[in-house]
Design brief:
single chain, about 375 residues, alpha/beta, Aspartate Aminotransferase, domain 2, Aspartate Aminotransferase, domain 1, four-stranded mixed beta sheet, 11 helices, 12 strands, about 10% strand, globular, binds pyridoxal-5'-phosphate
Length: about 375
């Protein structure tokens, strides 16, 4: 039996008619940029997240860059980021000429450890970017407490957390602004690239609305008030996302069912399963286990037709893009340990029960060969 890591084409057959209708509607409307679909999607996604505003943009990376710009990050500033994350979190700060400053994660939730936050702050800290990694929300109260005390803006990286909650509030509604990605593999994915910023702050929203469209002001075209850019979500993607947003909760609950089934049935002593903090509703973007013999586990799964992936094999501070910075290993010990142990096994709304069972059986059959001990 084959269990691919993700097969996105399987997500669409039962909504094919709705998606085709949306695409045709846009094609025939003659409006392709900043039209009614974008406006409607922004309203619907803001309502879903529970914020006053949603501003759609071209990608998650640009959502991060524009959010950081809107909260005042400039060249020479420092931006506090998790030591373990997908590199775009760091690249957003770097693209503004700011220095990403890592904080090690809590090894149990994999997310930013609030107890380590203080030691990453300096007088030049201009923003904190907690990442709801794998779909598990960051413990936000202590992060916000420190941030408010020192007047530092907080931008959530919610690219993996569509539908997650911290206590009763949705990820994306917890800080000054939140950056979203609609990359096709995310819990809410477009048929191409897309992103958004959600925020309760009207000034941040208006600023990003201008920045995404050449620095023009709404209703006053051809005058750039600052050096903006083109970072717009197009009407086609917005129309597709409107259809898919209606299925997000159903798809997420299938992800939760699979995570619970893995949690109850995988019982291999050499594999550590992910946990959910009592205040968290996990979006299960990824199901990430830990194993000291991760590479052997990965090979074993592959020999049984199961594809697994490593998120992420190299912490950003060890990547060539940041080799000119003098990062110390001591601030990222946990991240370095995780890099060698984490393995993401298949999870997604389109996995069949038999495939889930095959993953469980295979995980339970895995033995660390004695020569590896
Ligand atoms: C996917 C992702 C991004 C980048 O989003 P894009 O739409 O690919 O630019 C940023 N941060 C995290 C945590 C992500 O998973």
């Amino acid at each position: 039996m084959k269990v691919p890591f993700v097969d996105l084409s399987l997500l669409h057959p039962h909504i094919k008619d709705e998606i085709s209708e949306a695409i045709n509607r846009v094609m025939e409307s003659g409006r392709y940029i900043l039209g009614p679909e974008v406006e409607a999607f922004e309203k619907e996604f803001a309502a879903y997240v529970g914020t006053r505003n949603c501003v759609s943009v071209a990608s998650g990376t640009e959502a991060l860059i524009l959010s950081l710009r809107a909260v005042g990050v400039k060249r020479g500033d420092e931006v506090v980021v998790p030591a373990n994350t997908c590199s775009p979190t760091w690249l957003a700060a770097a693209n503004l000429g700011a220095l990403p400053v890592p904080v090690d994660p809590d090894p149990i939730t994999f997310t930013l450890d609030p107890a380590r936050l203080m030691s990453a702050l300096s007088p030049r800290t201009r923003a904190i970017v907690p990442v709801h990694l794998y779909g598990h929300p960051v413990e936000m109260d202590p992060v916000l407490h420190v941030a408010r005390r020192y007047g530092i803006p907080v931008v959530e990286d919610a690219a993996q957390a569509h539908g997650a909650r911290y206590r009763s509030a949705r990820a994306g509604s917890l800080a000054d602004a939140a950056a979203w990605s609609f990359y096709p593999t995310k819990n809410l994915g477009a048929l191409g690239d897309g992103g958004a910023v959600t925020t309760d702050d009207d000034r941040i929203a208006d600023h990003i609305r201008s920045l995404r469209n050449y620095g023009w002001h709404d209703g006053d075209p051809y005058v750039s008030h600052e050096a903006g850019m083109n970072s717009r979500l197009d009407e086609l993607q917005a129309a597709v996302l409107r259809v898919k947003l209606r299925y997000l909760d159903t798809w997420n609950s299938r992800r939760t069912d699979i995570a619970n089934t893995y949690g109850t049935n995988i019982s291999n002593k050499s594999i550590v399963l992910p946990t959910v903090a009592p205040w968290a509703t996990h979006a299960w973007h990824l199901y990430v286990v830990r194993c000291l013999e991760r590479d052997l586990l990965r090979e074993y799964l592959a020999s049984r037709g199961i594809t697994s992936l490593v998120h992420y094999p190299l912490s950003p501070q060890r990547q060539p893009a940041f080799s000119d910075k003098s990062y110390s290993i001591s601030t990222s010990m946990v991240a370095m340990m995780l890099e060698n142990q984490v393995l993401s096994i298949p999870i997604g709304p389109n996995l069949a029960d038999a495939q889930v069972q095959h993953v469980i059986d295979t995980m339970n059959e895995f033995n660390i060969p004695t020569e590896a001990i």
